[in-house]
Batch of 2 targets.
Target 1
Amino acid sequence: MDSLTFRQLTTEPQQFFDMLPSEWQKEIAPYWKDYESVAKIYIIEENDIIIGGGIMFSACPPNFTYFEDEANYWFSKGYLYLGFIWIAKHKRSNNLGSYWLTQLKKAEAHEKYFLLTEENRLHQFYVKNGFTRIKSLKNEDHFEWLYLSE
């Protein structure tokens, strides 16, 4: 992990968006100008190449209408939403997701977080990284799980 850099990406957000799955890109890139004042992108770089990252939101991100009331409740309690967390496929299974979360918690030490995932297989990963599953929520034809970290 010595060759890794964790930092906030303050310019050229498209660098991060380009590494996301295309369906995620469509959910954030066109709307970024509307959200950049309430969001921060944090990335992991290896040799100046972005290999992972995620976005910390202080207000509802795009396409969150099904979850807006619940999200606003957690925002009112001082939590921030973590979304678009992604590690490059060729870099997975190297603890980079844990590294990103650990570094974020160091950089934003005073913050509490919530996130959603529809992938139940990530349960152990989030528990290992200090999150607690709170509930499941129905989103159209599938369920998503809400996690908190304090």
Target 2
Amino acid sequence: HLSHFFFTLYLLLGQSCCETDRLLQGQYLKDGQELVSAFNIFKLKFFNFKNSSNRYLGIVYNNLYLNDIQERDVWIANRNNPIPGGPGSLTVDSLGRLKILRGASSLLELSSTETTGNTTLKLFDSGNLQLQEMDPDGSVRRVLWQSFDYPTDTLLPGMKLGFNVKTGKRWELRSRLGDTLPASGSFVFGMDATFTNLLTILWRGNMYWASGLWFKGRFSLEAFSNYESLFYFVSNESEHYFMFSVDRPMMKQHFPR
């Protein structure tokens, strides 16, 4: 249903932190454990939805930071591959691959790139989760994988909506089936491949909604104008995408359900 299609725009300031924000190669993040971003804004953890025993690995807002009882997920690694009826774990294996495990068996391989150097998984205060190959001096040699390249139904500052011209990689949001059913739904929000300065919602491949063309820093659709100041458009020989940012100290907005 369209009522379940939404995305959220967030920018939050942080607090002091006392927990780890990274998983080192060979370590396991077990069910009941969590990574916490440096300023205590986001957590990576296993959780389940009400009336379901399926376990999901996802990034959620730290409810202590939000002063809220309910944890709100912004990204789910295995939305279409839940762990049925039991605990799971996450590991960076000896080859640098990022895997979700059920028991000793691999359930989902998030990154299959093999490396020769040390590999670290880090959760940032932006809500991005990065798998990094490290140099001996502790600097980042390259980013192997990041959650911002695989958005689910929530848009955070720094995420892209668009596509890579050379690889065909698309960055788009896909609705969930319901509030407690995070599997991919029928609505897709992203950039139109024909008119690259247009945002659209597609329902089963058919046009459902369009933002109006982006021209001189604004969308032509008046109903979308409340959000245009958040967005900027990038177009070059490699990529075409929209991204948004906010300059106020705290902001939380929802597009209408």
